[in-house]
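agent> fetching stored inputs for the zinc ion docking request
agent> found them:
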Amino acid sequence: MQVASRLAAASLLVVPALLGAQSSQSGAARSTSSTSTAPAITTADLRTRLSIFADDSMQGRETGKIGNFKGTEYIARELAKLGLRPAGEKGTFFQELPYRDVAVDPAAAMSIDNQGMQLGTDFLVLPSYGPIPFGGSLEGAGVQTVYGGRWGDTTAIDPSQTAGRLVVFSAPTNAQGQAAPQFWGVSGFARRFANAAGIAIATLDITPAQLRSLLAEPRSRVVVPGAPRSQFGMIVTRDAARRILGVALESARAGTAGKPLTIIARFKEATTEAPARNVIAVLEGSDPKLRGQFVAIGAHNDHVGFTEQAVDHDSVRAYNAVIRPEGAEDTPRQPSAEEATRIRGILDSLRATRPARMDSINNGADDDGSGSMAVLEIAEALATARVKPKRSILFVWHTGEEKGLLGSEYFTDVPTVPRDSIVAQLNIDMIGRGTAQDVKNGGPHYVQLVGSRRLSTELGDLVESVNTTGKHGFTFDYQYDANGHPQNIYCRSDHYSYARYGIPVVFFTTGVHRDYHMVTDEVQYIDFDHFRGVTQLIHDIATTVGNRAKAPVVDKPKPDPKGECRQ
Ligand SMILES: [Zn+2]
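agent> prediction call returned; pasting tokens
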């Protein structure tokens, strides 16, 4: 699952107090060659598969990196063994995304009255990143400039005054009325000035060093050929703003022209370390009349790669048990004296059983090793079944979920089967946990469902009836599906890419936990009985939807596919 807001987390980042991490021990690399598995969905198979997929050798499966490539190789190799039909590009199981490393050209420069300004010191070109809506280039001599007032103030300047000009804004203010660096907090404001040559916001002096380096970092993204040009944006110092406007910000008046600017600021693209790719396979339906329709089952093949610094495994677990019970979902902070004592106690008891172990690999055993291997086990069970479902089953392992649902967005924009023929999508992200220690109200029969009735009441009802008639015995927790829920789960995993096109979805998860997006998300903490049960339930739902005479009826309004997701 995608983090709620990397920018918010980064600007608040506190390194957890790691207590007494000393010795280092490298994880012994297990062989990643395939081991035999049985046709049925079994705990043994799930363990075998997950031990391969979430092994250290997969290096955290970050999109565009070699580890993610190896993970997708494993999935495709298993699909070939099962004899499933490749449904990617050019007769393969893969659909490659136009994913590129994008970085600001270090030659970026600008000048006023022939006086140069330095990239990094006087200005910083803004990337397209999370909620930041920029990432465009700007080049020109004599670019007209204008002061736009305070960033976020819709009364200061009318967009009719900004056409073709670089608009300079002073910093937005926070709730206390102080200048703040969080210019992305004013949602949609940048779009008002789509006609401008670009936007400059005078927040560089107050931007924390950590956020500054985060913004300057090269990053990878999908570069769709022929897509509309992104807006150019930069942050500048107050002094640079003064030089552009010819007057200090305090005395500038919105709408007043500044000096003409000469600027070269562009982004450079390069291929990533390894291709970013979805893995796609089809099991042909048994009914000639219905096999043109698909029940889609999905998970994400990527995770978040390495951590910046190695951390001690048990220190993270002990700290998170007390301070961050939902892992990266919770903001880190300094423990109180009482909390520090509790953390120390937990760590001491762990130290009594095993030595310290430094680690920097986010293995993503649960996120989304569990979903990915569940889809593979379902594929194996259906491919080897004597009687196949009437409709075809479409299996998609999406890449780039952690980077912002990139793989599922790309697949649904550029589908390799007719999009209208997908009758439902069952998305699986993190189904290996959900015990009483992991989640409030958790237990062996705990599953969270999100979105199951948001487009089709019938599909949501069907999930309930399969659970009952199949005697699966799960208790569904629907609290995260509430409209406006602060965790916004409906918008945070791949199902939404399908739902935005009006395809009914069900999202299955056993929920976030202390190891969420941590080096501690490892196979040893997976509850395999629980994991197997949820996998079997989803298998049975897919089979039921696949065999019904009619596709699930969509009785709710469809969202705008290009609009913003709202839970
Ligand atoms: Zn995740």
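agent> quick read of the result: The two ends are 16 Å apart (CA to CA).
agent> awaiting further instructions
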